[in-house]
Sequence to fold (197 residues):
Amino acid sequence: MRKLVVNEFLSLDGVAQAPGGAEEDPTGGFDHGGWHMRYMEDEAAREWVLRGILDAGGYLLGRRTFEIFAGYWPNAPEEEQVIAEPLNTKPKHVASTTLSEPLGWQGSTLLEGDVGEAVAALKREGERELHVIGSTQLVQTLIEHGLVDELRLMVDPVLLGGGKRIFRDDGVLRDLELVDSAVTSTGAILASYAPAA
Fold:
C-alpha cells in the first residue's frame, strides 16, 4: 500500500491559506496572501519543496488548489520547469463535488463517490507516494478518516491571526511522532510527522 503524504506551508498559528500570492485565496476577507514566499529564499526550504514534488508518484488535490495549479503550471515560465514538469505529467486526483470531467489539465481525474473510500482505494492501487499539496478542506477530511501517513510541514515564524487551517477543532486527540526536522536560515521549521504507532 502506498503512503499518503500531506505537504503544507503553515504559519506559527496554524494558518495554511493563500501562502503563494495575494490573489490566491482571499475568501473570508483573508488579506495576507503571499505570506509564505519570503521564507522560500532559503536553499534548504527550496530543496525540501522540490524533493516533495519529485518524490510523489501522483498528487491528490482539492478543487481550489486544483484550479489554482491548473491555471498556472501548464504555462509556467522556463525557470520553474523543474517543478512544473512533474506537476504537469504525473497523475492528479481531484476531490470536488462541483467540477466535472474532462478536467482539462493533463493527467487529471475526478474522484468518484465518498472521498474517504476513494482515497483508501487510491492508496491500495500504487506503490509510489501520493502527495497532497494545499487543499485545506481535503486535508481535514483525510486526517478525520485516518488516511494520512505523513505530515510534511514548513512552519514559518509568522502569526496571521486567522484564516483556513488543516487541523479542525474536533476535540480528537491524535498522537504523532517526529520523523525528521530542520530549521532554515529564515527561521522556518521543516518537520515531518507520522501517526504514532
